[in-house]
Structure formats: C-alpha cells, structure tokens
Amino acid sequence: MKREYIKNVLSKEEIGSEITVCGWIRTRRDSKGGFSFIELNDGSCFRNLQIIAEASLVNYESDVVKLYPGCSVKITGTVVKSQGTEQPLELRANSLKVLGFCDPEIYPLQKQRISFEKLREEAHLRARTNSFGAIARLRNDLAFSTHKFFQERGFLYLHSPIITCSDCEGAGEMFQVTTLDLEKLPKTEKGNIDYTQDFFGRKANLTVSGQLEGETYACALGNIYTFGPTFRAENSNTRRHLAEFWMIEPEMAFADINDNADLAEDYIRYLMKSVLKNSEEDLKFFDNRISKGLIDNLCRIEASTFKRITYTEAISILEKSGEKFEFPVQWGIDLQSEHERYLTENYFKGPVIVMNYPKDIKAFYMRINDDGKTVAAMDVLVPGVGEIIGGSQREERLEIIEEKIKNMGQNIKDFWWYLDLRRFGSVPHSGFGLGFERMVQFCSGMNNIRDVIPYPRTPKSADF
Ligand code: 4AD
Ligand code: MG
Predict the structure, then answer these.
(1) Which of 43, 39, 227, 42 is nearest to 145 (CA)?
(2) How far is 452 from 387, CA to CA, in rounded Å?
(3) Is the Cα torsion angle 16, 20, 26, 27 positive or negative in sign?
(4) Burial class (CB in 10 A: 0-12, 13-18, 19+), 24
(5) Cα 86 to chain centroid, rounded
(6) pLDDT digits (tens, 9 = 90+) for 258-276
(7) Under 8 Å CB-to-CB from 242, ≥6 apart: which residues?
(8) Alpha carbons 51 and 55: distance in angstroms, whole number
(9) For position 112, what pLDDT does the model report?
(10) Is 1 a residue whose pLDDT tops 80?
C-alpha cells in the first residue's frame, strides 16, 4: 500500500479509510486500558498523527512497548474520529512494522528542550525537531515563492557560475579555488606563485555574487534572476553573517533605481503573502515559541508601502536621534547594523529603503548621481535583521566606469567583457541581491542565521 503523507491524512479527514503512514516516533504513552498512544511525525507538516496501538496487535509486547522517540515505523490502520479534544482524528493501527529502533540511552534528541547552540552540534539530526522541521519547510516555501514571483513577471532564471575570476564586490573576501599542491607551490622566475600551472591557468575563486554575469544576460534578454550559493571569506562572527549563503539576484534592463526599489518592495510583499498562506501552521509555531507578534508583523509588512529615504536623510535622522551609537554617525560613514536597526525598528517601525549612498563606500559598478558625490544605490532594511537587500542602478557610461575601476587600483583589462556591455549597445539597467537566509530569519523570527540554513559555514566551522 502506498504511504500517505500525514499532512494529507490530517487535511482530508477521511474517517473510516484504511491507510499506511511512515514516520518517526515523537512520543509513546501507555494507557492503563492496555493500549498505547503514539505521536508520529513524517516531516510533511508540523503536526503529528496520533496512533492508537492496541495490545491486541501481534507484536505489541515484542515491539510496541519498546518504541521510543526516534524509532521509525510503518503503520497501516483505520482513520477514526478522535476521542480526545486535541486533534480531530487519529489512526487505529491494524499492523505496525518497526523499520528501525532507536536507543533512548544514546539518542541525542531525548531531552525535552535542547538549546539551539547545542543542536548545531547535532545538525544531522536537528531537522527532526519541531523548530528545524518548520525552518526547512519555510525555506522551501520561500524558495518556491521566489521562483513563482519572478516567473510570473517574465524573468528568466539564470545559472551564474560558482567559480569565477572576478571579485564583484571588490572587497577581497574571496575563497580561492586551486588544485596546486600547497606544500610545493610552483614559482615563476620572479618568485611569485605560477598560476599558469593551476587548474584554470589563472587564479580563481568562489563567487561572492552572480551580478556581473547576470548583467551580461540582462543586457541581452531583458529581465533575469539568479538564485544560487555565494561565498564570502569575511571574518564576521555575527548573528547575520555566513561564509556560504544563498542569494537571489534579479537584474533588469531598461530600469532605473526607482524601478529597482519597486521590484524589491513587490517581491518582499509577495513573499509575505505566500508564507502567510502556505506556511500558516509553521508560522504559528514561530509566533508562539520564537518571536511573539511575528504573524502580525508579517501581515503589516504585506500591506505596507515601504518608506524611502536618502542616505543623507538617514544620517540626519541618526544624528538627531540622541542615541549613543557604538560607531559615531557622520556623513560618509557606512551604516552599521546598529544604525540600520535604529532606522527600521525605532524610527520607521517598518521596512525602509535607503538610497543614494556616498560613492566612496559602495562598489565600483554603481551609477554616479548628478551630484558627483553619491551613487544610485539602495539598501532595504527590515526590523530584526537590518539590511536584507543591497542593490543599485548600474553605471552604464563607459568612460565613467573605466575611471572608477582605475581609481580602485584595478586593471581595466580584467573587466574587458564587463566593459563590452557599455561599449556595445549600453542600456540603463538595475538589480539587487536579497540574502535568502536573512529572509528566512525575518519570516521565522529566529535570532541566529546559523539556525536557518541546514549546515552553516562560519569562521572556524564547517562541520558535516
Ligand atoms: O549588499 P550585497 O553585498 O550586494 C551584492 O552582492 C550585490 N552584488 C547584489 C546585486 O546588486 N546583485 O549583498 C546582498 C545581500 C545583503 O543585503 C544581505 O542580505 C546578503 O546579501 N548578505 C549576506 N547574508 C548572509 N551572510 C553574509 N555574509 C552576507 N553578505 C551579504
Ligand atoms: Mg550590502
């Protein structure tokens, strides 16, 4: 008999039907009346299915009374109305097959409540807990909704490369990819490492962003988006930084910074709407146990128009705030997490888009504004997380971008292909990157980004 997902069993409520379910035991309780209650979870939804295993089952004494949390079973039974008030239905087992026992003495998930920190050491098992099961389903929902959002708007899904020879953000935070023997590096006559002998014949890295390649396709196909892993070797041990994270990067031809901000807003609102509809049960859990008021917040954001301010206005708000910030505020500084959070949490109490940052603190590809001092950049800040999106209108004027690359101390020859976009039929274009894990953090209220990705990679940590 084909197995039914517990999610479907609970939603269809087909009383009287005979079905088979498979899953892992969450709890077993023996009743005086000579039967056991089993809470079974198969990951298809947050809720468990309650099983009634009567003592008349042939293997009741040999198997059922030895079932502990973590055991895997296959159960065939009849769906019946529940006697209790906790759930509408339960499954009366006709046969129960143990697929795998689980020793309660050594199973790490025995204890009632284990801290998230401790669970990171059991990352291979943590998906079996309520919190991490819910996170996994929420991630899936957000990923699927992302594709739906862009596909419905005619954006083409682009697979940008993971290995690259360019540093998009120019921050030098790249992981190097090499097959050279690190113990015996080949040297040139001048004594430098001879990368011509490396796998790619030159120095290569893991990408920090698919943007530059994304631009080349947008400047041929119109609107594209990437959705892939990105890597940053920044030594940041914070609750919102990972060394490996997923990013969604749309890029639009014939679009300016305001079109870009419109898209970012629409996208975030769309995600709110999707998770409120599709992940309702998991969100209720997060609201109850992780972050009170979460669902109200998501609803509010789904219905809101985001505030838009310039960087200069943001600085003035921060200066007038009377707050004591760790990093002093002054025109020209990069906004720190504490500044972003003041703006979105205390001042605007909602999402805010900050635009037109000083050119010196932003990447080379951003378009210089007419004032000559700022660039057409935009960061979207949200409560609890701070920066969730970074984007800009791109510099489409050849001479200006060449000048910027030179001023950065870079060789414009390295950017020959990128500059060709400005040489051959250049068009205004814009795009942004949304940090996927920061979005999962935002929708779940989880405090630490390490707990919203299956296997977090951070400085000094790449277990599993
Ligand atoms: O602001 P960033 O660095 O922008 C870019 O990479 C652009 N190339 C995007 C574009 O215009 N196509 O990064 C974009 C977003 C940030 O707003 C943040 O949400 C996330 O990526 N992010 C990180 N998330 C987790 N861990 C890190 N270390 C992150 N660094 C950036
Ligand atoms: Mg940024």
Answers:
(1) 227
(2) 17
(3) positive
(4) buried
(5) 33
(6) 999 999 999 999 999 999 9
(7) 232, 437, 449, 450, 453, 456, 457, 458
(8) 13
(9) 72
(10) no
pLDDT at 106: 94
Task: Determine the 3-state secondary structure of 346 from DSSP.
Answer: helix
Ligand 1 site residues, Cβ closer than 6 angstroms: 168-169, 209, 211, 232, 234, 241-242, 245, 247, 249, 387-392, 431-433, 435, 437-438
Q: Ligand 1 test: best mutation among 438, 440, 453, most atoms within 8 Å of CB? A: 438
What's the Cα-to-Cα distance from 389 to each of 24, 52, 354, 377, rounded to whole Å?
A: 38, 49, 10, 11
**Would you state the structure tokens that stand for residue 55, as one six-digit string?**
């003592």
Q: Return the SS3 of 268.
A: helix
Spatial contact of 46 and 27, defined as CB atoms under 8 Å apart: no
Amino acid at site 236 = S
Q: What is the dihedral of CA 343, 347, 353, 355, to 10 degrees?
A: -70
Q: Do 207 and 163 meet the contact criterion of CB atoms below 8 Å apart?
A: yes
Q: Which ligand is nearest to the CA of 380?
A: 1
User: What letters, b where the CB count within 10 A reaches 16 and e where it falls short, cover 397-436?
Assistant: eeeebeebbeeeeeeeeebeebbebbeeebebbbbbbbbb
Residue type, 247: M
Residue 167's pLDDT band, with cuts at 50, 70 and 90, is confident
Residue type, 151: Q
- Residues 430-443: tens digit of each pLDDT: 999 999 999 999 99
Start-to-end C-alpha separation, the chain: 35
Q: What is the mean pLDDT of residues 237-254?
A: 97
Residue 223 phi/psi, 5° resolution? -115, 130
Residue nearest to atom 29 of ligand 1 (CA): 241
Q: For ligand 1, atom 28, which residue shows the shortest CA distance?
A: 241
What gap in Å lies between CA 415 and CA 166, rounded to an integer?
A: 8
Tokens of 255: 């679009």
- In angstroms, the CA 230 to CA 320 distance is 37
Q: Which residues contact 390 (CB under 8 A, 6 or more apart)?
A: 377, 378, 379, 432, 433
Q: Hey, is 287 helix, strand or coil?
A: helix
- Is the distance from CB of 160 to CB of 210 less than 8 angstroms? yes
d(CA 379, CA 357): 9
